[in-house]
Amino acid sequence: MGVSISTAKWLAPAAFAIDFAAQQYGMFSSPNMLDVHNQNLSYFSPQPYFIAGFFFPQQLFQLAWLYRLYKLDPKTPHELSELKQMVDFVPFYAVGNLCIATWMIFWNSSQLKAAHVFVTINSLSQLYYITSRLGPMNTKSTSSVLTHIVSKTFAGIGILDLLHNGSVAFAVNQPATMAVRVLTGVGFGVASACSDWIFGGCLVYDLVALACGQSGSWRNLLGAYAVGSAAIVAGKNWARPPYNGEGSGYHRTATDDLDIA
Q: Is 252 left (phi over 0), alpha (psi -120 to 50) or beta?
């Protein structure tokens, strides 16, 4: 799924621009994103303003990452080594942005099952990248830090998107069953135990957003899950810090022979 550096330098900003345009359509069309949300509630419907509160700072990190991608010179050995990890993420970044843009069109048309296809593609592709391709963070490299932040926040909010869209597409106006309650706790608990500060923080944020969007005992349980998830993430990462800042932060793979052209 690799691309050349020259392709990455136009593909990533183009995908960002398409997604940004789709988000403006989603906010200012009629019905808009919030209208569709309010008309289709379920047991994984978050407080909608938490999504907006997440995407604004996340887009600032994306812009910083895109600037680094554009600025780094592949003819400079040190900068080429930084570019390699960034370019390896570009196809997944582009797929994510294009899927979210397409999701927006279906969401605003209240075609929630079709929208769920694109949410699923985005979420699974981002999770695949951070679990199978992303090298360790080099805290001495701005590019490495930004790649970890952008990719893991994409995957983190993707979890919330997957749960939210899935519930309203297939179980609108339904309460959380006992199976849903148990699997939510187990799933987030296991994911928290495998997460660093960035992705783990996103999981906690997801649970808080869900809790604030629900009511009654389910709201209280989601709040307890959020506290438990935060404790697991903090305990795991304090006991075994995930970042040491040593080395290049990049494992040699086949993508090290990346094309510049």
A: beta
